[in-house]
C-alpha cells in the first residue's frame, strides 16, 4: 500500500500547539467525549468518567438482550443508550464508512471485500478521532465537541477491528487478501464471541441487521454516500492515511516484540540478568535480544517523530527511554 507523505512544515500557531506529543498519548484515548457528552470508550472508560457522565445527565440505560437471531448475546446486558446514539447517527455512520472505504480503495484497489480491507477500514475508523484530537491546527477539544457521527464510527470500528484481527489470525487457511462477505464476517463474530465482552459479559446492543449494514459499508462502501459524509470537512484523507500507516507499523512491531519476549520468558529458562544477551531469530535475522530491544525502541522514537510531523507539530517530542517504550506494550 502506498505511503502518503506527511506534511513537511508545521501549521502556523502557538508554540504549545506545535510541541511534540508522546507516542502513547497520540495512540490512545482516555475519557474523551463527543458533542453530547457521551464517552467514546463507553463502558470501557474509567469508573470516574462514567460517574461524571451520569451526573451530567448522559443517558447510560441498560437492558437485557432479546435478539433471537444472536444466541451469543441472548440474555446479556447491553448499553441501550449507546445503541440509540448509533441509530440516531446511522445515515452519517454509513456515509462515513463509505467515505473511508472509497478513499481506501484508491490507495489499495485490491482491498475491497477482503479480510485486509475489513481490518484497514475499521482501523481507519478508530484512528479518525486520534488525528482530530491531537493535530496541532484546530484540534477538537477532548470533551463536548467531537461530532457524534465520528464517535459512532469509532465505536462501531472497534468491534469490527477486533473481529477482523481474529479472522486474520485464525484464517482457516484464508490470507489477508481473501474475499469475504458480510455473512462471513457476522457469522464469524457470532460464532467466536465478538458480540460479548469477556471481561464484563456485556453484549453489543445493535440488532444484527444494523450490524450487517455497517459491515457492508466497511467492506464495499455500499449503503452510504461518501459525498454526503462530514468526514471530508473534518480532515483530509492523506493525513488520516499517513497517521494510520505509521500507527499500524508500530502496532506490528509491538506485536512482534511481545511475541519474541513471551517466547523467551514463558519457559522460565532465561535468568533476567541473561535476557538481553540471549540470541533470537526474527524474520530471518539473528540478534541479541538486547540489540533487538534497542532496534524496537529506535523504531518507536522514529514513529513518534513521524506522527508528530503528520499532526503538524514542529518537534518530534522528547525521546523515549527503553522503559518508557516498554510501558506502552
Q: In words, what does this structure look like?
A:
The chain has 329 residues and is mainly alpha-helical. 53% of the residues lie in helices and 4% in strands. It is built from 13 helices and four strands. The chain has helices at 15-18, 23-27, 47-55, 80-88, 90-107, 115-134, 148-170, 182-191, 208-220, 231-234, 237-266, 289-310, 322-328, and strands at residues 62-64, 77-79, 279-282, 285-288. Strands 1-2 form a two-stranded antiparallel ribbon. Strands 3-4 form a two-stranded antiparallel sheet. The longest helix is centred in the C-terminal third of the chain and has 30 residues, at 237-266. The protein is globular. The two termini are 26 Å apart. Mean pLDDT is 92; it is low at 1-13.
Structural key phrases:
329 residues; mainly alpha; two-stranded antiparallel ribbon; 4% strand; disordered N terminus
Give the topology:
Elements lengths: L14 H4 L4 H5 L19 H9 L6 E3 L12 E3 H9 L1 H18 L7 H20 L13 H23 L11 H10 L16 H13 L10 H4 L2 H30 L12 E4 L2 E4 H22 L11 H7 L1
Antiparallel strand pairs: 1-2, 3-4
Describe what is shown at a glance:
By secondary structure, the chain is mainly α. The protein has 13 helices and 4 strands. It is 53% helix and 4% strand.
Q: Which sequence of strands runs across the widest sheet?
A: 1-2
Task: Tell how many strands the DSSP assignment holds.
Answer: 4
Number of helices: 13
Please report the distance between the alpha carbons of the first and last residues. Answer: 26 Å
Q: How much strand?
A: under 5%
Largest sheet: 2 strands, antiparallel
Rg is 21 Å
> Which segments are poorly predicted (pLDDT under 50) over 5 or more consecutive residues?
1-13
The secondary structure category is mainly alpha
Helicity range? 40-55%
Q: Mean pLDDT across all residues, rounded? A: 92
Shape field? globular
Order of helices and strands: HHHEEHHHHHHHHEEHH
- Assembly category: single chain
